[in-house]
Design goal:
With 334 residues, the chain is mainly alpha-helical. The chain has one domain. It contains 14 helices and no strands. α1 runs parallel beside α8.
């Protein structure tokens, strides 16, 4: 029996913590929600395995097939899928109930901090004006959400299908820490983002940012229904756990940065792609009004910290197992 990993322990601890803090606030079915998350993640894993298998066939390299047929690799894959599912559910629950457990908003302070960092100007307004051409705004409007979902699919497909056990576990450890620490930062410094706090700035670009503002309205209705439940009122629609609102830090930026740091070591073309994603999401988060500059900068710092700890843990584990007293060095691949 393989030992329990950090990403499993940390997920369970955080799930128990939010359940104790907010056990009366959950209005969705945990089982049904988690099944939907699991199916989505499973599809990503299957896609990643299919692509790697095709590459292995073209190269006539049977090593990948020998790895993925082992019981240990299959068991690890199932554990990754199950606990990533629970992590997403836990993250969503923390984010969803933030306005109930800590209703104070820090948007004005974040706006002022942005101006301090940007020499007296608001970077959100600066970049919105810089890219105010309707064609450019429509490009940001389309790309911000689509790049994130596309990048998440690529990243999880890549790491779920990775043959190296050490790489998969280390990535999952850092990724779990990234999202759950970020969720508690939402709770520590609640904010809704500039488009909600200063809507007049973005409403002037309603036609060019139509998709973004439709999604922002959808999330705000969900936010209001959460508050209705907290007040003992009947919600006007079904509460969706993935429709929480929080700005600080930007975990969309953080995730792109986290994957970029990993792919610098593993896949050159992936590094280039995610380097572009980091820049596109950072700029897009401000142009569309979802985030302040400080949200993205904090997300980048959090991503680097989670990556650094996860990578060093992996290197230390490999060195320990490769030492003369550790047994068979071939265990490194498993």
């Amino acid at each position: 029996m393989r030992r329990v990993h950090f990403f499993e322990i940390f997920t369970v601890v955080n799930l128990v913590a939010i359940a104790l803090l907010a056990r009366d606030t959950l209005s969705v079915s945990p089982i049904a929600t988690c099944i939907n998350f699991f199916i989505g993640l499973l599809m990503q894993a299957v896609a990643g395995i299919a692509v790697r298998s095709l590459i292995a066939l073209v190269r006539r390299d049977r090593a990948y097939f020998r790895v993925i047929r082992t019981g240990a690799w299959i068991a690890d894959t199932l554990r990754l899928l199950v606990f990533t599912t629970l992590m997403i559910f836990t993250y969503g629950w923390i984010k969803l109930v933030t306005p109930i457990l800590h209703p104070r908003l820090f948007d004005q302070e974040l706006w002022d901090l942005d101006r301090l960092l940007f020499f007296g100007l608001s970077p959100s307004v600066f970049f919105l004006d810089l890219f105010s051409n309707r064609t450019l705004l429509r490009a940001f409007d389309w790309s911000y959400a689509n790049i994130f979902y596309f990048s998440a699919f690529i990243a999880l497909a890549y790491f779920f299908s990775e043959p190296s056990r050490r790489v998969r576990i280390a990535f999952a450890n850092g990724n779990t820490a990234l999202w759950l620490i970020g969720a508690w930062l939402y709770m520590l410094v609640p904010s809704v983002g500039p488009a909600y706090r200063f809507p007049d700035i973005w409403m002037a670009h309603e036609q060019a940012l139509r998709n973004t503002q439709m999604l922002q309205a959808l999330l705000m209705r969900n936010y209001q229904n959460v508050m209705r439940i907290a007040a003992g009122e009947t919600p006007t629609d079904v509460i969706r756990i993935i429709f929480g609102i929080a700005a600080f830090p930007s975990l969309h930026v953080a995730f792109q940065m986290y994957v970029f740091l990993w792919l610098r070591r593993l896949w050159t073309w992936g590094e280039v792609l995610f380097g572009f994603f980091v820049l596109a999401i950072l700029l897009g988060s401000m142009v569309t009004g979802w985030h302040y500059l400080i949200d993205g900068l904090t997300g980048i710092a959090l991503a680097w910290a989670c990556y650094a700890v996860a990578w060093r843990w992996m290197c230390h584990a490999e060195q320990s197992e490769a030492s003369p007293d550790s047994g068979d060095p071939s265990l490194l691949s498993g």
